[in-house]
Amino acid sequence: MKNPLLAFTDKGIYCEKAKVYLDPWKPVNKAIISHGHADHSRWGNKQYITHNRNIPVIKHRLGEINASGVEWNEPFVVNGVKFSLHPAGHIPGSSQIRVEHKGEVWVFSGDYKTEDDGLSTPYEPISCHSFITECTFGLPAFKWSPQKEVFREINQWWTENRAEGKTSVLFGYSLGKAQRLLKHLDTSIGQIYTHAAIENMNEVLRTYLKLPDTIRITKETKKDELKGNLVLAPPSAHGSSWLRKMVPYETATASGWMAFRGARRRRAVDKGFVLSDHCDWAGLLSSIEATGASRVICTHGYSDVFSRFLREKGYDARTEETQYEGELSEMNSTSESE
């Protein structure tokens, strides 16, 4: 395709006509940011444009940056190119980025999911000619159960641990996953304690989200206080000395990767719950169909498999390399002091 509206460069996804990058992975002058996860919003850009709800998140993570915000469906023009942000449903404040010039429309999905988690603004399909999609879980093997069923399992696990006098330690990324877990935990079972990284992010998000009460774990927290209650912690806390004061405890991870047989064993947790903030196979396909796009560009995840399937379905589909990591980034991040 000659001179596409959006091109993949060594710095990120670039709109040459506007001289703007979308979620760049190297420092640039002007960046439009889809959401606050570390692989999509990086330090060093001279100017950040994002959704208003994402500004406190990226400022918490990146410091005093030059950031301006817009609302959903609020168009803004840069050098004659019209941009707007639309709900992605991935985490609070997450956006799809719509780009329009001379009647041609592209949509960069960022990371997204179609199930309404009761916390993020629900995903909305946006009509376009070209759609850039993640493929984190782009295999038919990934099929999510309704979150209501998953949270029933999580709350039952906590109830059983409480009956046995154990602390329930549940791992989830500090931005998005932890708050989703918190939103749907049954607080009648016991109290919810939090690792500092998660509580710091809770404080940021509580400026516009209603979340259940939590108790920050400090050096003064006693082991007996935790017994029978639930602790929310980032994945980086697993196997750390921080967990010692919680003995006896049971550990669990909430992630889409728990759908893989053996994933729980590899992560050395006692229990795995299949819960992702990304689309499963069916969600990806239905989302793409709803856009009406004929051209689909597949990025991070199972992009080769997914793009091949789309070509068989008649789409003009291809893959592009990025430095986005999807749920791998959320599971493996060591930058949990945020």
Structure explained in plain terms:
Keywords: Exonuclease, Hydrolase, Ligase, Nuclease. This is Ligase-associated DNA damage response exonuclease. Its EC number is 3.1.-.-. It is an enzyme of class 3 (hydrolase). The chain has 338 residues and is of the alpha/beta class. The protein has 2 domains: 7-142 and 278-328, Ribonuclease Z/Hydroxyacylglutathione hydrolase-like (Metallo-beta-lactamase, Chain A), CATH 3.60.15.10; 147-273, Rossmann fold. The chain has 9 helices and 19 strands. It has helices spanning 55-62, 147-163, 177-184, 196-205, 223-226, 263-266, 281-291, 303-312, 327-332, and strands at residues 7-8, 13-15, 20-22, 30-32, 47-51, 67-70, 76-78, 81-87, 95-101, 104-108, 130-135, 167-171, 192-194, 215-216, 230-233, 249-254, 271-273, 295-301, 316-319. The strands form 3 sheets. A 7-stranded mixed sheet has the order 7-8-9-10-11-18-19, with helices on one face. The chain is globular, with a radius of gyration of 20 Å.
What topology emerges from the helices and strands here?
Elements: E1 7-8, E2 13-15, E3 20-22, E4 30-32, E5 47-51, H1 55-62, E6 67-70, E7 76-78, E8 81-87, E9 95-101, E10 104-108, E11 130-135, H2 147-163, E12 167-171, H3 177-184, E13 192-194, H4 196-205, E14 215-216, H5 223-226, E15 230-233, E16 249-254, H6 263-266, E17 271-273, H7 281-291, E18 295-301, H8 303-312, E19 316-319, H9 327-332
Parallel strand pairs: 3-4, 4-5, 5-6, 10-11, 11-18, 12-15, 12-16, 13-14, 13-15, 16-17, 18-19
Antiparallel strand pairs: 1-2, 2-3, 7-8, 8-9, 9-10
